[in-house]
Queue: 2 jobs
Job 1
Amino acid sequence: MKVNTLLSISTLQALHIADGEREITSCYIGDLLSWVMGRAKADSAWITIMSNVNVLAVATLADTSAVILAEGVMPDDEFIAIAKAKGVNLFVSSLPAYESAIALSELLS
Amino acid sequence: MNDTLVFHFEVDGEDFTSAGQASVQIKKNLRQLGMSPEVIRRVSIAMYEGEINMVIHAGGGHATVTIEEGYIEIKLEDKGPGIKDIEMAMMEGYSTAPDNVRSLGFGAGMGLPNMKRYTDFMTIESEVGAGTTVTMRVNYA
């Protein structure tokens, strides 16, 4: 599915869409950044509760398609500004990570 | 590619939020050179982990990336405290990172293992009290 497809999930709010046509091929949940870099696949949607700016560096370098902040975690303005600068697709989910992933799974399959 | 390209970066040891600048720049450079996405991803992640290590443990350092025929070499040099037990440091889950670093999502003991995982060759030379040099290579077709 494409990043724009996430817009159809009512519990997701888009904070920045850099490339809505980008493909999402899988989903990864994790908060330990090195773990994410070691295990998340390229082109996956990454669900996390971390909202420090290093998340955006990891998303960029690990080539994830989108970052989804779960549990309604709202990042600060600096985070959003850097997401825009780095071209990271950024969403906030009002649901916990597990339920967020289930919503994605329905669209991925 | 006949010419050897060399990129140098100073990694700022004070600034955690800007860590990764060298890796992001290298990613751009490799993309311009037409490297495959998978090679770029492997180099970027290995180098970022190395950058983070230098920020956490060594107060910064120096990174050199050389594009050779058939492989990309990443050399990370610091004058930090050195690694007491390299074998332990290479184990997944082993970490000596402080709590403030862990609260940012680092310090999971995956940095060096990831660097090894994503590269085709890696050596660590370290002297306690003097510093550490990590050399990694990623092959490309």
Job 2
Amino acid sequence: MKRGIKTYITLFLSTLRISAFTFGGGFVIIPMLKRQFVDVLHWLDEDEMLDLVAIAQSTPGAIAVNASVLIGYRIAGIAGAVTTAIGSVLPPLVILAVISMFYTAFRDNTVVGYVLKGMQAGVCAVIIDVVITMAWNVIKDKRVFPICIMAASFIAAFVFEINVMYIVIVCGLVGVTFMRPKKGDGAQ
Amino acid sequence: MIYLRLFLSFFQIGLFSFGGGYAAMPLIQHQLVTLHGWLNMTEFSDIITISQMTPGPIAVNGATFAGIRLAGIGGALAATFGCILPSTVIAIILAKLYYKYRGLSFMKGVMNGLRPAVVAMIASAGLSILMLALWNGAFDIKSTDLIAAGIFLAALAVLRIFKIDQIWVMLAAGVLGAVLYALV
């Protein structure tokens, strides 16, 4: 990857834009990052993206910032990580700074509420769109372990609301026990 | 010195909040309300409300809000920097290990196990927000927010069919929300 100034600008603007629209924080940002860096820019493939998300999940702190930092690091080293870190915290920093000055008026404004409700529905569509694509990629391989892990993790996270940290640990252990590439399995 | 104290408080919040998102909430409350008395409970719950309505992780939002209240823009910067510094350093160290060892069958096994789990966790987060958007959190088919449901389905159709930039889809959803909710 050529690390010209354009790379940094693209990294900065991508994370800035995505962060500005990540309402609610957390996992919401992942589908956005995936769409931008995997589908649009083709800087990462889907497997590596999922690996970086797993690392972001295993790191303390906000997953949105962690994932942005990891992508920046992967594309352009430490300088890239700093670039995406700034890109991802700048929008909430600026927006919160403005809002904190007159937050009761903001909180009670009906038009702001309508726009935010509409955008919330739009965010859902972006996430579900990416989830459909990624889940289909797991299912169409027709391998038992990945499909079972996906189903079990979903039930654990969504139905039982188990802390994602435990899900990460258990699935990592299952993977290392049952899903190591076999010798001569070059395609793995 | 207030800048340093803000930095150190949020450094701890950033370091110990595993699991992301709302996992940071009790830590923020402990540091800002209980330990230092920088915010009262009403202000703290306002941070949560505002965090839900605005972009960004709740810890970063809390850092900016508390920082500004206590020491202006400089306070916001010190708190935000403290909040993201530990996780950034740890993430980069883990990434270094990942790129060094990802050729090993051990590491490949771990990642093979984690990838489908990550897809599931994203799906779970997505459905939680969908529940919030369409049913205010508790599923009840009779109280479906039809405007939100319509915007959601239209946006999903546009995203599936056209390779359109997601930011435009969301801006359009916001405008549609303002118009439709105001009309109905």
